[in-house]
Amino acid sequence: MVGGLPRPFWALWGGTLVNRLGTMVVPFTGVYLTQSRGLSLAAAGLVMGVYGAGSLLSQLLAGVLTDRIGRRATLSGGMVATAVSMLALGYSSTLPAILVSMFALGLVIDVYRPASTALVADLVSPSERPRAYGLLFWGINLGYAIGMTSGGRLAELGFVWLFWIDAVSCVVFAALVWRAVPETRPEARESAGGFGVVLRDRVMVGFTLVVLGHALVYGQTMTMLPVAMTEVVKLSPGQFGLAMALNGVLIVLVQPLVSGWLGRRDASRTFATGLAVMGLGFAMTAFVTSTLGLAVTIAVWTAGEIITAGVPGAVVAALAPAHLRGRYSGLFGFAWSMAAVLAPLIGGPLLELGSKALWFTIGGVGAMSALGMLALGPAIRRR
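The line above is the sequence of MFS transporter; the predicted structure tokens follow.
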């Protein structure tokens, strides 16, 4: 045990960090498709849409596999498949080949998430789960911040470097989990069936809707926020990037200091508080006119992000029977994949109506999600 958490958890954490350090392809996919492969914006949009379709199926498929073939096999197999898909995309030169590779990548790149969530639930005691999930969240953000910085520089040397580094990091993650993390899946006879049993759990379905609201709010950071700040507020990409760097800095510095304390609070009230703070931060974005103003709003919604960090995984673990943790985690992940598709579809038309229409609506979604979580609180506490 290290710091109250078992050694296999730290192997999982280390593998996640390595994998996020190598996460360089997806953030630069649009640039790669248009600059390196010469695709039009419409063709690039089609490719990203196909990726999203694969991602939607990914979480449900991974949830079933996690319960049927095991956590370790699903995670390691998903990472190896991701490495293969990465390299296939990197060497695809025609639109049909790129479409097939991107669909495959969307299908396998996040297969590890339900397996990882189930592994933490299996390995870590209930009292320590919020801290464990918070530490995973922190490691993902730390690795991603470094990976993004390195990826931008490597892209200038040639995009093929990004694909190889990403693929190697996936294989390292797979090998580390295969060697250092035991299989924790209950007996296979208990895992028969599909998602029907999960969908009949009204508390889990309600929580999934809350998570969808949470993900729709957060999804604006990667969809409409950059557009609104550069096109409407007229900040330069450099100014926007400088302000957004505050998000990563605050998470890396503050998250480890508060995760233990937050983990001892009531999960429902903590999550509701974080959602409300996030909603407030995004609603404040309607009044941004400068880089400093943007930084203030980012600090507010990042505080909400930190508050919510370790809670959802712990709630899913509390709601799910042990033999169905993969499926429950898959439904949770599906909400995030769905939000990735819906966030730009909802945000784009709202931004055309005006900044206030977009950001007040997003703030309202955060507030409604917080109220929904408070309503679910008694049922979650009974579990």
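Note on the example: The chain has a mean pLDDT of 90. The radius of gyration is 20 Å.
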